[in-house]
Amino acid sequence: MKTYLFPSVYQKLGFTLFILALLLFTGVLLFDWELSFLTVKVWALWDIEFLADSQYFTFIENNIIDEIILLLFILGLLFSGFSKQKIEDEYIAKTRLSSLLSAVLINYVLLILGSFFLYGLAFYYFALFALLGVLLIYNLKFHLNIYVQQKALQHEE
Amino acid sequence: MFNRKLCSMKNKIKIYRAKFELTQAQLAELVQVSRQSINAIEKAKYIPSTVLALKLASIFEVKVEDLFELEEYE
Description:
Chain A is α+β, with helices and mostly antiparallel strands. Chain A has two domains: about 80 residues, no CATH class; about 70 residues, no CATH class. Helix content of chain A is about 65%, strand content about 15%. Chain A contains four helices and two strands; from the N terminus they run αββααα. The two termini of chain A are about 35 Å apart. The relative contact order of chain A is 0.13. Chain B has a single domain, classed as 434 Repressor (Amino-terminal Domain) (Orthogonal Bundle). Chain B is built from five helices and two strands; from the N terminus they run E-H-H-H-H-H-E. The chains are: A alpha+beta, B alpha+beta.
């Protein structure tokens, strides 16, 4: 079975993109960065604005910082999680698979809990996290497992 | 007849490795896996694929069943 993974150099690129996304996200959320030069005309397949009619297949004005941040988060997490390790063998493949399984399970358990215990804007923020939940938890699990395996080697020989 | 009791697998890789005076890193290089894999197999944390088991047996010039054996437990 052929499994597609990015070349190993993409791992560092992934971490860099993720940190960049985190910095931009923090800036926009906590420090209200305006970045008005990023307000441009974009083509919308479907747009529903608050207290307005839906629009389809049309051009609208939009600040694309949120799209850029989401793109950076997704690419960063994909590259850092799905790049080849120095030696990519069957044990690493098994570690990937078990990390991915845990990530899917944890993410959806959190989503069920969130849907019952979070309401209004709190659920909206949580849903934003859930967009990246699987990738985030997978990356954490996978890199933690690799770290633990490497630590275990230090006690050998 | 195969016993239906639950089974895990134990192995003698560490013993054979000592016999052949190989480090985990050297053995890993010979069978083209990471050192983490050899360490995990030795500690029975990971059961290798048939291909890897055959490669390991061939390095130590033994049959796979000399290197790995089923361990029954209730």
